[in-house]
Amino acid sequence: MIHAIGRRDRRYISTVIIGAGHSGLAMSRCLAERSIDHVVLERGEIGNSWKTERWDSLRLLTPNWQSRLPGYEYQGDDPDGFRTMPETIEFIERYAKLIAAPVQTHSAVISARRSDNGYEIRTRQATWHCDTVVLANGACNISQVPALASAVPARIAMLTAAEYRSPTRLDSGGVLVVGASATGTQIADEIQRSGRKVTLAVGEHIRVPRTYRGKDIQWWMDVAGVLDERYDQVDDIVRVRNSSSLQLAGYPDRRMTDLNSLSSIGVKLVGRLAGIVGGKAQFSGSLRNVCALADLKMSRLLGTIDEWASTNGLDAKMSPPHRFEPTGVEASPPLVIDLRSGDIRTIIWATGYRPNYSWLEVPLFDHKGYVRHDGGIVQSPGMYIMGMPFLRRRKSTLIDGAGDDARDLSIHLASYLRRKCRVLPRATRLRESTSRR
User: Fold this and answer.
1) CATH topology of domain 10-141+355-435
2) Predicted pLDDT of residue 421
3) For labelling alongside 112, which of 80, 330, 365, 429 has CA 20 to 30 A away?
4) E strand or H helix that includes residue 11
5) CA 166 remoteness from chain centre
6) pLDDT tens digits for 94-119?
7) Within 13 Å and on the Cβ side, how many CA atoms surround 31?
8) Tens digit of pLDDT for each residue in 394-404?
């Protein structure tokens, strides 16, 4: 492998990977296998988001056996368990050490721009010149808080899901959780069980069981090929990439966490938060329809699993097919809640995230501010992206999906470097070769 040699603050290398989470480390391993010299720049510590932007009790939504990265997988005695955050951080740090990833911590990228023959990546410590760059800083850098939050009465405390840590740190009184995907449902469940009264504002969501026919739902989606479905096999990839996360939780008792389970412990369900006028929160009246659609999608998924099990001769080995009770919705859910009454003391915004590319000075964003790409190949020669929803496969954002995406993109990246080397003028090749010795 060719190693970069820094000349004071100017350094030359083939590839710069931005981000040392599981996606960036998976790409590092794949590039190392191809002897492509590279560096991984990390704004904080390895696995920084796992350390700083998760609540205390969070566990992975995927079973331990599903934590598979290039050259590394789970080897413990609890394959069907769910890692805590400290265990997840340890897993990622151990992987970085095992593959000897060339990570430079506390090296936040200030700017990334095109140069005459590649890219210039600036940190406070150095300026890197590279042929290719991989954006692996993740999809969950900035919490998305709706503009209507500005109308919330001043006396009500507001937190994003990234800022939430535990019920004990909240003010006493009721809590409104906005958003009912994986994050919102877990936070609502935890806070309600702590003794506080929770109201959950429900928008579009994807309902799935934790277990089905004696196996974890992730096992079924893995073996049946659902998680391996490719981005170029779906009809509307933009819509799919914008879909909500699954209503799943990695609780040790493997309980199903859906709106029915939340209602059973006292969580109040209301529709999507549509506005706040005069201190009054207004909710959509489509709750029943939204829940019916989620039930329908779950039945379709279970139907796909049943068909696969039957085709592959597993019916006799598994519990029989069954369906779950429809989501229960009261006849007339509240459409208005007066936030000035004092019943709600805290609002938690579990309304999703978006990546932070404020430092990326390359004109390749769509109208929503997302990087334009085709399966991770960015519309700027030599630039790639990792860790985004349904990047190349349905499982792309899972730890288990990073490896396959990295293998695919590292092949394309290596090919790009070979082509670039062939077309560069001889004088340029000699100059770059000399600078990298």
Assistant:
1) FAD/NAD(P)-binding domain (3.50.50)
2) 81
3) 429
4) strand 10-18
5) 21
6) 999 999 999 999 999 999 999 988 99
7) 30
8) 999 999 999 99
